[in-house]
Design a protein that fits this description.
By secondary structure, the chain is of the alpha/beta class. It is built from eleven helices and 20 strands. It starts with a strand and ends in a 6-residue tail after the last helix.
């Protein structure tokens, strides 16, 4: 079984037609979803960008020990295991942090192509663009296509990772004009703050949403082209394909424009609501009947899923669970509890997020605990707790923690038990042992 994993950074689940969006154009992914198991209840685990990749590559809840940092040299990762299992391994990425500063995510790949042009460092940003093909997501997908043409007769694992639709939101004008016909070319940078306090106007927010939507449609088009190449090479009968993202983004929901709250030199975190934690996950496996599932699953489950698809032994250190029995219809349930969280930093510690600059953590960062219809936001002992029933309140506007103390206590106990079972350091666990 060949395996392709595609990650599109910061792609909001509810901006895809296959997740019931009726205004944003994503025809290629919508068509692909018709042949997939579509996960309606998939959530990020470690947040944001590189912590999610750490979970994906290790199959572990890395938020308990790693943070935004290079992969430990002794970490056993997906590409290494597959290479040892006889797979030709290839990664094509334009997400900028895979190899910078010794991050080591190229380990285990026979071939690794970083398409330069994305990044928080403006010196890396690709502004030499005349045609759509010159943008990073198109270049990344095109490189993946060309690699497939050369290696499709081998047993392969292809990992494709594009930073779009992550900001800066500057797609070709024809995509933006689909959503804002009178767009004058103005671009808006997210303040990672309350958009009103940051002084943004409603017109600027319209521009932000249109530019982001345009990037989503551009990513859809080029992902569709890669999927068409897989099909045209006659690979669909023996190739499994997984499509997902790392997290979402706030476009005015809860007052925010960003995915965290930051000031120069300071990192304040932000509550991780549905718009960020709830992610798209599409899984195509040859011979599996397409359907939707509401089973609760986590990004940490992707590594063991890929390894079981490959028929390669899953390392003992893996903490996720394979979704293949669920995909093949042998079970209807996966998890009864999931967590999405920033790495468990304590105040005063440093972190690199979003733009790879060092910032000091100012307060305990909230974790989102998920079980059944409930999501609970919890940071530390004594801090306010938020509890939402997302079935009756999907926009999470009514905090019902005070009316449901037993549910709050149960979710907190599950969280502490999970941290204990994962061997979390006491310095990180102690402030979180109590409500």
């Amino acid at each position: 079984m060949n395996i392709v994993v595609i990650v599109s950074d910061t792609l909001r689940r509810d901006y895809l037609g296959c997740y019931r969006n009726k205004t944003i154009r994503t025809p290629h992914l919508d068509r692909f979803a018709e042949s997939c198991v579509v996960f309606d209840n998939a959530h990020a685990a470690s947040f944001p960008t590189m912590p999610m990749r750490a979970d994906l590559f290790t199959g572990k809840f890395t938020f308990t020990y790693l943070g935004w940092a290079p992969l430990p040299h002794d970490e056993v990762i997906l590409s290494q295991v597959l290479a040892g299992g006889g797979y030709r391994t290839m990664a094509v990425v334009d997400t900028p942090f895979f190899v910078k500063n010794g991050y080591g995510y190229d380990r285990g790949f026979h071939d690794f192509r970083w398409v330069r042009g994305q990044g928080g460092d403006r010196a890396d940003t690709n502004y030499e663009r005349r045609y759509e093909e010159d943008y990073c997501a198109p270049m990344t997908m095109a490189h993946a296509e060309r690699w497939l043409e050369r290696h499709h007769k081998q047993k392969f694992f292809l990992y494709v990772d594009t930073w779009d639709p992550h900001e800066p939101w500057d797609p070709p004008a024809h995509y933006v004009e689909m959503y804002l016909p009178k767009w004058d070319g103005t671009l808006v940078r997210p303040p990672y703050w309350d958009w009103r306090e940051a002084g943004l106007t409603r017109r600027q927010m319209d521009i932000v949403r249109a530019c982001y939507s345009g990037e989503v449609t551009m990513v859809d088009r080029w992902t569709g082209r890669l999927l068409e190449r897989i099909e045209s090479l006659g690979l669909m009968d023996d190739t499994a394909i997984i499509f997902t993202t790392d997290h979402g983004f706030y476009f005015g929901e809860h007052g925010m424009l960003g995915k965290t709250l930051m000031r120069k030199g300071e990192f304040l975190g932000a509550p991780l609501y549905e718009e960020v934690t709830h992610v798209p996950l599409l899984a195509y496996v040859p011979g599996v009947k397409p359907r939707r599932t509401n089973a609760l699953v986590s990004h940490v489950d992707l590594m063991p899923t890929v390894l079981e698809l490959a028929g390669v032994e899953i390392p003992d250190a893996v903490e996720g669970q394979s979704l293949l029995p669920l995909i093949r219809g042998k079970t209807q349930r996966a998890r009864n509890f999931a967590v999405c969280t920033m790495p468990l930093y304590n105040p005063g510690e440093g972190t690199r997020v979003v733009d790879n600059f060092d910032r000091r953590v100012q307060e305990y960062l909230p974790s989102t605990l998920i079980s059944g219809p409930w999501t609970m936001l919890y940071a530390r002992e004594g801090a306010p707790v938020e509890l939402y029933n997302v079935k009756s309140d999907p926009q999470q506007r009514r905090n019902v923690a005070r009316r449901n103390p037993k549910i709050v206590q149960r979710l907190h106990r599950q969280f502490v038990k999970m941290l204990e079972q994962l061997g979390t350091e006491e310095r990180l666990l102690a402030p979180r042992r109590e409500l």
